[in-house]
Amino acid sequence: MQLQQKQLWCHLPNYSYSLSPFLSLTLAKQDSFACSLHITYIKSCFHLQAMAAGKEIFHKMKESVKEKVGLGASDSADSGKGKSKMSKQITHGFHLVKGKAFHEMEDYVVAKFKEVDDNELGLFAIFDGHLSHEIPDYLCSHLFDNILNEPNFWQEPEKAIKKAYYITDTKILDKASDLGKGGSTAVTAILINCQKLVVANVGDSRAVLSKGGVAKPLSVDHEPNMEKDEIENRGGFVSNFPGDVPRVDGQLAVARAFGDKSLKMHLSSEPYVTVEIIEDDAEFLILASDGLWKVMSNQEAVDSIKGIKDAKSAAKHLSEEAVARKSSDDISVVVVKFH
């Protein structure tokens, strides 16, 4: 964006010298003072036009990315919010913080409401990449589309989600030469017409619902030790080195993920899927990457934001609390408030 603005500022004033009949007349009369004043006037006009054009370009770029967020700068933080058109009391907010590792931000977020025919869908997701920011970025752009393109989505959303996860992972593996060797965990939540919540996950990004102040997990952490038999049946192994977490083939700390082509024979991308009907005692939903869950329990997270009405402020508070508790990983949080 800075480069585009600089180009507007540099080129438009230069072009202005050939546009004014008054300037040509002034030059013909060799009136250097008037010429100087008019050049200044022309430059000012085009500077103002360039600033307006630059702002318009920036606004359009901002609108085009506000539904998909991915950060790469070493000291970046980003946040945003939105609300349902079907039920004004349902709002969402998100906040991301770059971790201390010397690589690009690998957490990506989706948080938006989408109208489909006469229905409204709330689409929320955390994609936490490992050794990759390309794969979580790809998931941001494609996973929900693949889910909604399944013909049985409205009748059998659980089956549609499982199939779409499989199709998306297959495409990621086919594109491994472009997307790289890494992978990504995922937690997705689809709120259908503000009433039905369908949550799916692979890996250790987590979804937690607050019901009457009590934390209810809507996802499962896919830890290698919990799926040791399945991994070994596929020909892999789970390492348990002192001072380290269990890892698939001594490498990956989750048993399910998108990508990871070199380990895929021993990994699964089948999601855990659950359906929750949103009733009056459902207060809010938290989606977050393991940068939060490494330092906070489900109940601690719920208790931490139960008094914060604004969803964006709640997401930011959780992220900042994780940093205060010495989380060094990338941290991404989405909060959906139901009332």
Can you give a write-up of this model?
With 339 residues, this protein is of the alpha+beta class. The protein folds into two domains: 62 residues; 268 residues, 4-Layer Sandwich (Phosphatase 2c, domain 1), CATH 3.60.40. It contains ten helices and 15 strands. The strands form three sheets. Strands 1, 4, 5, 6, 7, 12 and 13 form a seven-stranded antiparallel beta sheet that branches. It has a six-stranded antiparallel beta sheet with strand order 2-3-15-14-8-9. β2 and β3 form a beta hairpin. α1 runs antiparallel to α3 and α4 runs antiparallel to α5. The longest helix has 34 residues. The protein is globular. The two termini are 38 Å apart. The N terminus is likely disordered.
What is the count of structural domains?
Answer: 2
Distance linking N and C termini: 38 Å
Helix and strand content put the structural class at alpha+beta
- Per DSSP, the total helix count is 10
Order of helices and strands: HHHEEEEEHHHEEEEHEEEEEHHHE
CATH topology of the largest domain: Phosphatase 2c, domain 1
Rg computed from alpha carbons, rounded to a whole number of angstroms: 25 Å
The CATH architecture of the largest domain comes to: 4-Layer Sandwich
Could you estimate the helical fraction of the residues in percent? Answer: 25-40%
Tertiary shape: globular
CATH class of the largest domain: Alpha Beta
- Overall pLDDT, averaged? 83
Beta-strand content:
25-35%
Low-confidence stretches: 1-48, 57-76
- Write down how many β-strands occur, each being a DSSP E stretch of 2 or more residues: 15
* CATH evolutionary superfamily of the largest domain: PPM-type phosphatase domain
Biggest sheet character: 7 strands, antiparallel
Pfam family, one: PP2C
EC number: 3.1.3.16
Keywords: Hydrolase, Magnesium, Manganese, Metal-binding, Protein phosphatase
Catalytic activity: O-phospho-L-threonyl-[protein] + H2O = L-threonyl-[protein] + phosphate; O-phospho-L-seryl-[protein] + H2O = L-seryl-[protein] + phosphate
